[in-house]
Write a structure and sequence with these properties.
34% of the residues lie in helices and 26% in strands. By secondary structure, the chain is α/β, with parallel strands linked by helices. The chain has one domain: Glutaredoxin (3-Layer(aba) Sandwich), CATH 3.40.30.10. The radius of gyration is 12 Å and the shape is globular.
């Protein structure tokens, strides 16, 4: 499954009502660390298809979602399990560190 680009209107359906864990990457095109993290997030999505859902939120396009979760720094990765926020990671992280959040 490819990464899903979330909007305010589909966030609850895609994330909070998901029956599998969801990784949500808050990013922006002008953010260097976000661009460094992007291929890692894409790789996680590809390698874990069917086990986790991987979503992206462009904070410039979806400021309401960024505000909803108090996103002050990017990249920020949020992990949701059973409709609840379970883990938060702020800043660039190696793939192993992000995968550890999903355990």
């Amino acid at each position: 499954m490819a990464e899903i680009n979330l909007t305010f209107s589909d966030f609850d359906e895609e994330v909070l009502r998901s029956d599998i864990p969801v990784l949500v990457d808050f990013w922006a095109s002008w953010c260097g660390p976000c661009r460094m993290l992007a291929p890692i997030v894409a790789e996680i999505a590809e390698e874990n298809e069917g086990k986790i859902k991987v979503c992206k939120v462009n904070v410039d396009d979806e400021p309401e979602l960024a505000n909803r979760f108090g996103i002050a720094s990017i990249p920020t990765v949020l992990i949701f399990k059973n409709g609840k926020l379970a883990e938060t990671s702020i800043g660039y992280r190696e793939k192993e560190a992000i995968l550890a959040l999903l355990k």
